Amino acid sequence: MRFPTSDGAVLVVTRQQLARVEAWRNAFANQRKDSRYYEIVEDTIKHNFEYRYFVFEDSAGNTRAVQPFFLLRQDILQGSGERILRVAGKVRTTFPRFLTMKTLMVGCAAGEGHLDHVSHEHAQWVATRLHEMIMRYARRAKVSMVVLKEFPATYRKALVPFSSNGFTRVPSLPGVKIHLPYNNFDDYFKSLSKSTRKDLRRKYRDTDDLGITVEVFNDVSHCIDELYPLYLQVYERSSLQFEKLTKDYLRRWGTQMPDRMRFFVWRLNGRAIAFSICMTSGDELHDEYLGMDYSVALDLHLYFYTLRDVFTWAMKNGFQWYCSSGQGYDPKRRLDAQLAPLDLYVSHTWPGVNLIFKRLLPLIEPTRSEKSLAHYPNYADIWGRQ
After folding, report:
1. What is the pTM of this model?
2. d(CA 112, CA 340)
3. Res 99: pLDDT
């Protein structure tokens, strides 16, 4: 399927067809999650997703970018507050598909979205071409809603063609970042508030003498059967559940991307009680997922205990930033975190319904139910321009 644009064309291809596109091998090379990651996601996270790819060609026929996307039936209330979900749940006992729509999502099914680009000018070119054709394809694919999923705020300027023409930009749950310009954990610890230091001393005192050990791996294939149940415990306790990772997903992350991966595994008396999946990106260490044994996690204050080990390793290895996904915002704020905003760009394919969307989306966007976000010093950045 081919859609002409003002500078070339955009082709819609499957993974099999993409194998013949040479540019795919270097796609997202400047991101921690490069083309290898998108292949892992498509192979291991199904969830009734239909994975496809936009291939961008310029007027000379050169491939300039490849943009992954996927099709699914989306609940537009996902991430809304409990009151809204409770009312919707009652309606869905009679109308199961109430406020669910066939949706085209540009980005990644497991993580934030990015444009495949090598410079800001290139990102603007890709965004402009994408905006020119995406509604034409959406209507051809009989899609009701189009979403650019969780794009970092740094893309706001490049994505102006969307936010200024037909799409509504609303915040998704932001990530967090903690600056670590310190020589060691003790120096970082001294920078925290007095009350936080007192609380952490008590937590560490309760746990330090138990003999918990930590190891760092690039691949955890050898112990994946032991670790995966710990991930499931965290997933099942989460109030907001999105994509559910598979065992094969975690295994292939290490076997196919060992250069980017760091797996931290904590043991007590030889038994795994926690693990953290991190990725490296320049001077940033990204904490992607956490697994814990909740039979001991709360009594041992494992969340704070594991963070200390991750911070210590990061500073020892020259990383300046610790980055993490959303949720658990209050404890992270006490650790001097700042928000890393993520945006959703949303449009309905019917113009009349889209006018309603523009009024509705700010009322149901996911940050409204996270009251602790307002206490962050850069809270205004969630909605602000960049």
Report:
1. 0.90
2. 11
3. 61
